[in-house]
Structure formats: C-alpha cells, structure tokens
Amino acid sequence: MDPLVFASGWSLGEKAYRAIRDDLVQHDVRTIVEFGSGTSTLRLSLDLPNATILSLESEPQFSEQTRGQLKDL
Predict the structure, then answer these.
(1) Strands (DSSP E) along the chain, which ranges?
(2) Closest to 17 (Cα-Cα) out of 34, 31, 55
(3) Per residue in 4-14, pLDDT tens?
(4) How would residue 1 be classed by pLDDT, with cut points 50, 70 and 90?
(5) pLDDT at position 70, please?
(6) What pTM was computed for the model?
(7) CB burial class (10 A; 0-12, 13-18, 19+) of residue 38?
(8) pLDDT digits over 9-61, tens only?
(9) Strand pairing partners for 54?
(10) Is there a contact between 40 and 17 (Cβ–Cβ < 8 Å)?
(11) Would you give the distance in Å from CA 46 to the centre of its chain?
(12) Alpha-carbon distance 22 to 70, whole Å?
C-alpha cells in the first residue's frame, strides 16, 4: 500500500486534505499541530517543507511507522 494515499476509514481523505493544505499554504503557516500521524503527516511534510509539524499520536506503533516512512521520503 502506498503510504501517501488516504486508504483507511480513519483517514482524512483527499478532498479534506487538499482544502486544509491549500488554507495552510495561503496563510504561509510555519507550525502545524495535528492529532494522529500517518498519511497526512507524510503529505504535509512534502507539501509544506518549511513548516514544523508536531503530530500527537497515542499509538506507539503508528508513531514509529510514520517516523520510518518520513525517513524514506
């Protein structure tokens, strides 16, 4: 499965992601706090490379998985 595709039922979804990303870009946001890590974290790191992203994740396995995927980008 491609880690950059919103695939699970818990995912933000492409339409919502684009709306949020566009708003963040329009306002030149440099710090992002998100609840839950995963595809949105990966995509935001690519789409807003000058932003600092703080992801609050309650599940250690997802946090570790996202960290590993970020290293591969």
Answers:
(1) 31-35, 52-56
(2) 34
(3) 999 888 888 99
(4) low
(5) 94
(6) 0.88
(7) buried
(8) 888 899 999 999 999 999 999 999 999 999 999 999 999 999 999 999 999 99
(9) 33
(10) yes
(11) 9
(12) 21
Identity of the residue numbered 58: S
Q: Are 65 and 41 in contact (CB under 8 A)?
A: no
- The token duo for 4 is 């950059």
Residue 40 in tokens: 């949105």
Q: Which two tokens stand for residue 61?
A: 């396995």
Alpha-carbon distance of 13 to 46, in angstroms, equals 17
The CA-atom distances, in angstroms, between 35 and each of 1, 55, 59 are: 22, 6, 11
